[in-house]
Structures are given as C-alpha cells and as structure tokens.
Specification:
single chain; about 800 residues; alpha+beta; about 35% strand; globular; disordered N terminus
Length: about 800
C-alpha cells in the first residue's frame, strides 16, 4: 500500500513538472484556426512545453481531407524543448479551400503520450462586412453569454469571418430581473456591442421566466410583469435590434400543449413592442416542427391562425437532413396558405448534428436546407449553432456546432463561408429544377451575373447544358471556383449528389437550361449471373459536332465486353449507347451495401474540350428469393445511421430518445417463396418493446411496416405487422390498390410474433398468400418493388424508425424504393 502511495505521489509530482500542448497555428486566424490566402507560410503545428523540465518529444501526424482521404503523412519528428519553449512544425500548404483534419500523436519522455484530432479551415473570409444585412439574412445561433469574455471574443470573430450578419441569442428575463425590481442588462449590452463591432446584429430570443414568477405563470399562464420585461427591452434596444422572438419552441414542453397560454404571451409582447419600438419586428417563437405529434400539429396551426395579427414574422426550426425538414416545412407552408397569412417566415434555428450524419454530411445539409428555405420564401437562415455545446461525441446536443468547443472548424464552417460570400445580397428568381431527381434554383447575384445551385437526391448524375452570355465557373461546397469552357455559348454543368453552384458572371441576361449532354440518373437494376443492357442517352444542343469519349469503371463482380466507346453526335442530335454488362452470381449491391459504376467522360469539339470528368451511376442487384425456406444470410440489414428516421423534435430534453445505435434499434430481414405465398421474417433488436396502440394507430408503437408495389396495380400496398401489448399478433392494411379489400387481405395474412427479453429481440414471421395481394408466379419472376421499416417506441411515443431505404415514412415515394424482389 505504501509503495502504491509513493508511486502515485511520484506521478502527481511529474504531472506538475511536465505539460505539453499541441495546437494548429494559422497566423491571424489562429484563435479560430482559420488560414487565409497570403498566410500559407504560417501554417504549422505548434508544440509548447509548459512543464518545468526539459523534455524529449516524438511527433507523428497525418493530414486528411474533409472526406477522410489521406493528403499527407508527416512521418516522425524528434526534438527537445526547454521549459516554456515552443516549436512549430510546418504543414504542407493547402491547394484548395476547405477543412483539413490533422491526427497528431506527441510522445514525451516526461509528460507521456497525447493524441489529438485537430483541424483548420483554409478560406477567403466572407466577413466582416459593414452595416446591417440587406436581403436574405445569414444568421447563426450562439450561446456566447455562457462562456468567459475571451471565448466570447473568439465566437464573435468566428461568426464575422464566415459572413454571418445576424446572431440569435437568449435575452433571458431571469437574467435581466433575477430579483424582482432589480434590472441588469449589462450582459446583453456587452454582446450587442461585441457583435455590433463586427457588423452583426442581434436577433433577440426573449424568454425564460425568473423563479419568483413561476407560481403565477403556472396559475394564470401569463404574469403581468411579462409586459414590463418586454417594454423595458423594446425601449432599451430600439434602433439597435430589429428582430425580437417571443419564446423558443413553444410547441414543446413549456406550455404543455396549450397554444392559448402561449398566445397570451405573444399578444402582450406584440402590443408592448409596437407601442415602444414600432419598427421592431416581432417573431413567433420558433416552433420545433409541424408533424411530429398530433398535439404539435394542432398547436402550430392554432398559433398561426389565432395569432395572425400579433406577429410580423413566423419563426420555424426543423432539425435534421433535408428530407426530414421537408416533411415539416411542406405542411407548415400549406397551413400558412390555408389561413391566408402574408407574414414572412424565417428558418431561424435549424441544422443537423454530426451524430445524425457526419462532419461532411453537415456541410451538405447546410447547403441544401439554406437554399431550399430561401426558395420556399424564408427571409433568412440561422444555423444552430456556431460552436459545439459539449464534448460528448455520442450526444446530439453537443455536436451541432460549425466549430468544436475548442474552436476547431468542421467542413460546415467552410460551406457557410462560401454561401454567405457567394449568395450575399443575391435575389431568388425561380425554381429551375430540370426534372426529378434534381433540385436547382436560379438566383441573381449581387454583381452582374446569375447563380444556379443544384444537386441530385437520387442515384445518378446529370451533365446539364447551360446556354448564356458572359463567363461560367463552378463553385464547390467550400468556395473553390473552377472556370468552365463554353462552346457556341453553351457550357456543361455536372449535377450530382455533392451540391455545387454554377456562376454565370459578366452578363445581364439570365442563362437557360438547354437539356442534358448525358445523364446517369435512375437506378440500374442487375440480375446476378445475367446480362443486362446499360443505356446511356447522349444529346448535343450545341451548334458544333461533339465527340463523346466514354470509359466505364466497373466495380468488382461486374464485367462488360465493351467498356470504352467513342460516339460523335451531330448538332441538335441524340444517340443512345447500349453497353452489355454481366454481374457475377455473387455480385451484390443493395441500399445498405451500395456499388457504383463510374462513367468517365471526355466531351470535345475538335481540339476544344468542353468537359472532362467522372460521373457515377448507382447499381442495384435484384434480390432473388429462395424457394421453401429462408436463406442463412439476411436479404437486408438495418443497422446504419443513414437508415434511421428521427421522428421527434430536436430538443435537449429529447436527447435520451434519439437513436443510440444497433442495440437501441436494428433488424435483419429475410424473404422466401413457398406454395403460392410470400414469406417474410424479421428479427428486430430493440432494447424496449412497447406497443400501446393497435389497428390503424399501430405505427405509433413498435411494429413493422412493409410496402410492396406490384406491376399493373393502381397503387402500392402498405401493411403493418404488430406484436400487441398482450402478445397477440395483428395485421393491419393501411393502403391497398383498387379492387382489393384491406380488411380481407389483413385476415388472410398469417402472422406469428415472439419476444426474447434476454436477447432484446422481437420476431415477426408472416405468410402472405399471393392471391391476397394480387401477386402471381408470373409477376414474381419479372419482379416487384419492396420496402420495409421498423418503428420504435420506448414508452414516450414513436421516437425513431429504421428502414431499408427512404420512401416509406411521412415521405411516401415509390421512386426511392430500394430494390426489386424476384422469384428464383
């Protein structure tokens, strides 16, 4: 025991005598780890010996791109540092704008080994800019007042450099009047001045009751003193604050689902503001969503309708990726139209944490959601939030930021900077979507020019033909601008899964989409062990003959007799290339294990190259169903974050309900054919089985929803398989094609279920007679579409669902169904 105590004492003394730090140095941008053009020589890793002993160090590091690809291996460097000394190891100069990640390990003979993942952002800052924002508002949510003054300075710098013009921060009643009658606005005065120096204005979130008024709030719903708080705020900040929001996410817990209680606060706030600062704009409390629950839908609709004369702007949140966002935005905008509301709306707190996607995925989400919001009429967009709220990598609430808590930038920071710089003072013109599955929008830029941001939400890419005057360039997620060649006034613009923007400068004339040179959109379905035609449609909208030089890059298991081809297409001509491909018996490409064909294209006219690059086409193998018994290996595996639909509002109190991994919810799915019946077996891993509902409401609890689309039928099938609270099985049919009875089909399907609490697994096995759903041996051999999801309710309501592929939750989309099932 004594020896152990001596050892611990020695370790404690050593830790006091030794300390090493490793950080990224970027010149003037070092406080927020931003590197600007002209300061590339100042980029390095700074190692500091803060201990009291001289120490020998060994440094190893690598530099990765934002997508994880390796850019540089720094090898091993050995050196010594005296107490207080530092050394800067130069890092390779970046060739393009964007975020780089550095994985560094520093081993000291005294301080031991430390490993860090650091980053820096190379960009041309889009700010600060003087004056208030003009046009669309580029905003950011912050929690600056929680942190020391030095951190507040760094946050204001980070917001300004990336081009933010609005910061949304709490103006808490409980802070302003902690004790009744004793007012203190100093914290808010400081923030307004701090950000104001950077040309960033406050969007004030007025909320949060002091303790001394809580009882009256519970009793009356709106204390009289609320009006005094708003009156003092409006008077004090008149001329300095344009936007004042009344509460945050009132549709959640504060008002217990009672919209009239909230409307009372809203009406008082509106009257006081208009009396004492009439030019100040009153915003509704940003609602968290629209369709998460029936109570939420009712709350938002009543707030919109009955509060119509007591707000100037409607604030809306809706966290998650774009598809999830649209499930809320679409009914919200429909209700706004239904009630004849002319007040504009503002996406003033919406984002996606890295725990729901990835660091690169955050950047894509920002690009899409900001521009879609703008195109749908929003007057601004606030990303939530500037900086991570914590350091737990598994807690969604800790991972929304554009910067980590220690001010290291993520890719989303570079994308925000690009959007703020490129689209500042731009004007939205119209939806220019050239047809599903692409989204594209025309904007007039602040100079003489036009912008066409675009992306594909589906499985392929398209090379658009854009006709216009002036110069063309392509701007990527991080602001890298690549000049585009034009031929006969037409340029080629590749639109794929990674968003980008085409910039047409030095022109007063809006360009136009003239069609497609080449498209790889749509899924290419393959039958394992069989030949299949890959069809590529070529088009030439130019006035000169074009040469298409194509080379296919095939994944392992896929082969073709002709993978390189040249084809000339005359002006205004079209051509279809047919290439025969064979898939090996064991070749597999499914939504959870996707494979892609690379289509390398060189497009030229004489010696002039119009476009050269690689496009992708998704491949999916048709799933052959075995006869009489299930296969050993599952047909589908559901266990990946990209397969999860989060169905509850994003709020700190909901953090425990978010999907936590495969042990929380996952599944395997097997299908087979036996005696004129389709067999389905699901093994769902679920930590808590809860099903308080039945029949048409069974989707609100734990159950399986399967969907089938059978050729020749008027609509798809949607069938629920449920293990009820009493352990009995239940089949429910929500949707059936014309000519079929939902009740009779449900009665004909045989379902057995079981629950293994030791393994936390629920089993569903269904036998679906062909005749009950209009399936036949002939149709089965040709193939039909299939999708499936598992709903999860752990006792507080439907939290999440996990799917084979999208298209079967709130967003009903046959085009997104994953695969074709076929009988062997």
């Amino acid at each position: 025991m004594r020896a152990l105590s001596v050892c611990l004492l020695q370790l404690a003394v050593a830790s006091l005598l030794s300390a090493a730090k490793i950080e990224v140095e970027t010149g003037r941008g070092s406080p927020i780890h931003v590197l600007i053009p002209g300061e590339e020589n100042r980029l390095g890793l700074r190692i500091v010996n803060d201990g009291k002993r001289e120490e020998q160090f060994t440094l190893k590091y690598v530099v990765d791109n934002y997508d994880g690809s390796r850019l540089h291996d720094g090898g091993e460097t050995r050196f010594s540092l005296k107490p207080g000394a530092k050394r800067v190891i130069s890092l390779p100069k970046p060739e393009q704008f964007g975020v780089r990640f550095i994985k560094a390990t520093l081993a000291g003979n005294v301080s031991g080994t430390i490993s860090k993942r650091l980053s820096y952002c190379y960009m041309k800052p889009s700010g600060p800019t003087a004056g208030r924002a003009k046009g669309f508002l580029f905003g950011i949510c912050v929690h600056s007042q929680r942190f020391p003054l030095a951190d507040q300075e760094r946050e204001a710098m980070a917001a300004a450099w990336c081009g933010a013009k609005v910061f949304r921060e709490d103006i808490s009643w409980w802070t302003a009047e902690l004790e009744q009658g004793k007012w203190n606005w100093s914290r808010f005065d400081h923030l307004v001045a701090l950000y104001g120096k950077q040309g960033i204005e406050l969007q004030a979130l007025c909320a949060w009751l002091p303790r001394w008024v809580l009882k009256e709030f519970d009793r009356t719903g709106c204390p009289e003193e609320w009006g005094e708080f708003i009156r003092r705020f409006a008077t004090r900040y008149r001329g300095r604050v344009r936007y004042m929001e009344v509460w945050n996410e009132p549709d959640l817990n504060t008002f217990k689902g009672n919209p009239e209680k909230y409307l009372k606060l809203l009406r008082i706030a509106y009257r006081e503001v208009k009396k004492h600062a009439p030019e100040m704009l009153v915003m509704t409390g940003g609602v968290s969503g629209m369709v998460s629950t029936k109570q939420q839908t009712a709350f938002v609709r009543q707030m919109l309708r009955d509060g119509k004369n007591y707000y100037d702007i409607i604030a809306f949140h809706g966290h998650g990726n774009l598809p999830s966002y649209l499930t809320h935005i679409n009914p919200f905008l429909a209700a706004r139209k239904e009630f004849g509301i002319t007040a504009p709306w503002y996406a003033n707190e919406t984002a996606e944490p890295t725990t729901w996607s990835s660091e690169a995925g955050q950047a894509v989400t920002l690009f899409k959601k900001l521009l879609v919001s703008w195109a749908r009429g929003s007057i601004g967009y606030n990303w939530y939030d500037l900086r991570n709220d914590g350091v737990d990598p598994n807690n969604a609430e800790h991972n929304y930021g554009m910067l980590t808590q220690d001010f290291y930038p993520k890719p989303v920071y570079a994308t925000y900077n690009m959007l703020a710089g490129t689209f500042r003072e731009a004007e939205f013109l119209e939806d220019a979507e050239p047809g599903r599955p692409f989204q594209a929008y025309w904007f007039r830029s602040r100079g003489n020019g036009y912008l066409l941001p675009a992306w594909s939400d589906e499985s392929g890419e398209t090379l658009l033909a854009i006709a216009g005057d002036g110069k063309f360039s392509r701007i990527d997620l991080f602001g890298n601008q690549t000049p585009q060649t034009a031929l006969d006034g037409i340029t080629a613009y590749a639109v794929g899964g990674l968003p980008a923007a085409l910039y047409n400068s030095e022109t007063e004339t809006k360009p136009e989409i003239r069609g497609k040179f080449l498209s790889t959109d749509g899924v290419f379905n393959l039958f394992p062990g069989e030949l299949r035609n890959l069809e590529l449609d070529l088009s030439n909208p130019a006035k000169s003959e074009l040469l298409f030089q194509i080379k296919l890059h095939l994944p392992k298991g896929l082969s073709g007799s002709r993978t390189t081809v040249e084809q000339r297409v005359s002006p205004a001509g079209q051509c279809r290339l047919v290439l025969r491909l064979r898939a090996e018996r064991n070749f597999c490409s499914l939504p959870d294990r996707p494979q892609k064909i690379g289509v390398e294209l060189r497009l030229s006219a004489g010696k002039r190259v119009l476009w050269s690059g690689l496009m992708q086409k998704e491949v999916r193998t048709v799933t052959d169903l075995p006869r009489n018994k299930f296969s050993v290996q599952p047909n589908f595996i559901l266990n990946h974050p990209g397969q999860v639909a989060r169905l509850i509002p994003s709020a700190p109190e909901n953090e425990p309900r978010y999907w936590k991994g495969p042990d929380d919810l996952s599944a395997t799915v097997r299908l087979a054919v036996k005696q004129n019946a389709l067999l389905l077996r699901i093994e769902a891993t679920d930590d808590v089985h809860c099903q308080p509902h039945k029949a048409a409401e069974s989707w609100r609890g734990d159950n399986a929803q399967c969907a089938l689309s059978i050729p020749g039928q008027s609509s798809r099938w949607e069938i629920g398989l449920t293990r009820l609270a009493d352990g009995k099985p239940e089949v429910w049919v929500w949707m059936a094609p014309n000519g079929f009875s939902r009740e009779k089909t449900a009665a004909k399907i045989k379902l057995t279920t079981a629950r293994d609490e030791t393994r936390k697994t629920t089993f569903y096995q269904a036998e679906i007679p062909f005749e009950s759903i209009g399936l036949s041996e002939r149709i089965g051999r040709r193939g039909f579409l299939f999708n499936l999801l598992i709903n999860d309710n752990d006792g507080e309501g439907r939290d999440n669902a996990i799917w084979i592929a999208p298209g079967n939750t709130e967003e009903k989309a046959l085009g997104r169904f994953p695969t074709i099932l076929r009988f062997r």
